[in-house]
Amino acid sequence: MFGKSSVKERKQFYREEWNLKDLPDFITDELPRREFGFDHYGRGPNDRYKVFKNPDFLRRFLKSKSPFAAYISIAYYRNPRSREDWQKAEYVFDVDAKDLPIRSCSCDEGEVCEECLGQSLEIVNNLIDTLDGDLGLKNIHLIYSGRGYHIRILDEDMMLADSDLRGEVLKYVAGATVPKSSYPNPDPSMAASNFNFQHFTLPIGYHKIFTDRVKYNIQHLKGNEKIDGINPKLLKDIIKFRHFLDEDAWGLFKGNIGPRRYNNIVNAMANVNLATIDAKVSIDIKRILRLPSSLHSKVSMKCVEVENRENFDPFKYAVPKFVHERKDEEVAVKK
Amino acid sequence: MVESSFLNPFCDEALNIVRNQADLSIVFDVDSRLVDIISFSPHQNLSDESYIPENIINLALKRIKWYIERKNNKEYNSHDYAYLFVEDISFYDVIVFHLTAQAIAYKFNFNSREMRLFVQSQGQIIEDRLGSLMLSEKRELTEDILGELMVSGTVEWTFLKDIISSKKLSLTDLLIDNGEVILDRDEFIYRFEDKFEDRSVSKMYDVLVGDNVKEEVLKNLIMQKTEEYIQNIQEKSHLIEPHPSILTLADEIEKTIDEEMTKYSTFYANVNSPGGYMEIGKLVKEAFPPCIKNTIEGVSSGGRNDAIVLFLTSFASYARLYPGIFANEGANIKVSDIDKNLDITEREILPLIFEAADNCTPPLFEDQPQEKINIISKLGFGMHSEVSLEHEGETKWYTPMSCEKVKIHLPQLCKKDKGCKGINNPLSYYTRAKWNLKKEGKLPDSNQSGNNSNSSGGD
Question: Number of A:B CB contacts under 8 A?
């Protein structure tokens, strides 16, 4: 990406570019009930338990301190200064491009590029479609975090949910459970013979979500992945026969792979689906997350709310001015 | 037509019985009408008078006993309790349900094994009663009760969030569209007609939703309401003096559960190996799965709390005291059922957990001493700094995390080895590995002889 920001660049960003208007409404709405945390030296957030009475106090703090990173709690507290009297918390999905278990780009480990960031956007769009279309959750915000995306959900039911419910919803949305395949025969006289359905034969509900996620994964395999339960020979065959999935010819795909090995794929893909999202973040009800509008100093990009999730381009909307100026300087030096 | 009260003790008709016809002063008296209903129940075993509860209190105790036998007795005979499944019992059953709920609320802690056992018994009785009805009766009654519970053709999935959160129902087993769980045939056809080209959409409804999902929802909602009912009584318990009959019933329930559990709890783990049954015994570190070994070696900041408090505490306690938890699900065991004077807990289990906490970076209790209390609470002894019988049941004895849960909460600890194949819980890994060590004669001496503390109350 754009490398680490210097102290001078951070100061320039917060004094000249950062604007109160960049803070999303869902952040400013109940600001005094949130905890803020700051990382001043690039070693992790160590300045915690900060509270701001209103956005203007936050503005003054950011302008004077120009932190390496700024965070805000997903939780609302009656007493945020001591993280006491938890009231509710956003429900979050964290998809980090550098941690995707299947990446179609050639990035080095721990790095991100335009391609895997694009892939992350596709993944969060799929997740939002499920959260919104299937589960009917409201008040969903998408944030570009600098190296991936945060889906921040302020649906009242989910904000009051405990970790267990958050985990159950996560598994559903991620496609982290192999769908049920055996159903009792509704005819009492045939009760001994169950119906069996492969996930791809049921085009509705959770089966469809799981099938869509598996298809996406398979279509993005490069062939050098190490996935538990899938050996190199199986991986090679998946890539060889995945063209059948372009037309959703799952039966032909499965037929060429073989039923036992197909079963291995299904189980492995449920694990991949879970690993695509940082599950710890989703079940946490007290976590702090990067503050939208702040600077991700490690990669010199802005953390911004995404207005149009279908065609958001982080290189258009999330690059701070000082990065462009760096380029101008480089050009000037070269001349 | 079968009345709702046969399945739903919270319906208007049931509540009217409790308000207007329940008389606490006669619950110990012989009730000839009750005896008649039992005596004339089809297939009821009448070979011995002990099969016939003569009064309401005895019926309440029989209902508890029925559930424990139903779950644990391999020679369980449904004819011994046939009266519980005749519609005529509804009147008495409703009274017994409410009396028992109140007795449990006054005597036992929320989430105590007695409370869980009662709630589970209510779920089981609903399931068995539904199974005893004619198909048409069952369907009509299910629809009526779902209506009473505010669940009709569709219901928002968030209405069921408590039963999803408690994992009684899985979201992935429900058919959800636009936030609504589809239960009704017409709604299913309306929404999905064009999705099934070569299959009858109506038939697909029967298979994917049909009676099964509705009955599951019904059963779980009533179980949930039972929990809420008990909680509600407990919250108000300081305002109301309970009737002496309720307190007597509570004592009798405790006695009955203790007797029955002692009879059926063998505390053996069913190991996934041929003929493999594992007696409880000292912890064998060589048999620990990689995730537990990694935890004991110490966890770094970020994952310390969950690793020690949630993961290791439940694993170590069940591995040492009750490795058969998953083989005997619903057995509702508490620590002192096995470790009578808490010696094992204090001398073996807690030291292992505390040592692992010390190995963390930074040591867990250095900056978070309150986590000691959380560890005690996860063993079922409430929010206190030490384990004591007096506080047992104030919190729940946490069952060990499944592999799936470890992957969500603590992915850094999950470093699979070949022993993990086919395993879905670290405890199953342990029991299998321990069985293999025993087979190979590699278990330490104290375990080779089967160090069972069940009868001695500690070792």
Answer: 89
Residues of B in contact with A99 (CB under 8 A): none
Find the DSSP H helices in chain A.
Answer: 7-12, 25-28, 55-65, 114-129, 156-159, 163-174, 205-219, 232-241, 243-246, 250-257, 259-275, 279-283, 314-317, 321-334
Judge if A205 and A91 occupy the same domain: no
Q: Domain count of chain A?
A: 2
Minimum Cα–Cα distance from B170: chain A residue: A168
Q: Nearest 5°: CA angle at A280, between A276 and A286?
A: 140
Q: How far is CA B354 from the centre of its chain?
A: 29
Q: Is A228 a catalytic residue?
A: no
Q: Which of A22, A134, A157, A278 is catalytic?
A: A278
Domain boundaries, chain B: 4-150+214-264, 269-448
Residue by residue, pLDDT tens for chain A (335 residues) are 789 999 999 999 999 999 999 999 999 999 999 999 999 999 889 899 999 999 999 999 999 999 999 999 999 999 999 999 999 999 999 999 999 999 999 888 888 999 999 999 999 999 999 999 999 999 999 999 999 999 999 999 999 999 989 999 999 999 999 999 999 888 878 877 889 999 999 999 999 999 999 999 999 999 999 998 899 999 999 999 999 999 999 999 999 999 999 999 999 999 999 999 999 999 999 999 999 999 999 999 999 999 999 999 999 999 999 999 886 666 555 55
Q: Which of A228, A257, A275 is the last residue of a domain?
A: A275
CATH number at residue A320: 3.90.920.10
In terms of CA atoms, which chain B residue is nearest residue A173?
B172
User: How many Å lie between the alpha carbon of A290 and the closest alpha carbon of chain B?
Assistant: 17
**By CA distance, what is B414's nearest residue in A?**
A228
Q: Is A56 a catalytic residue?
A: no
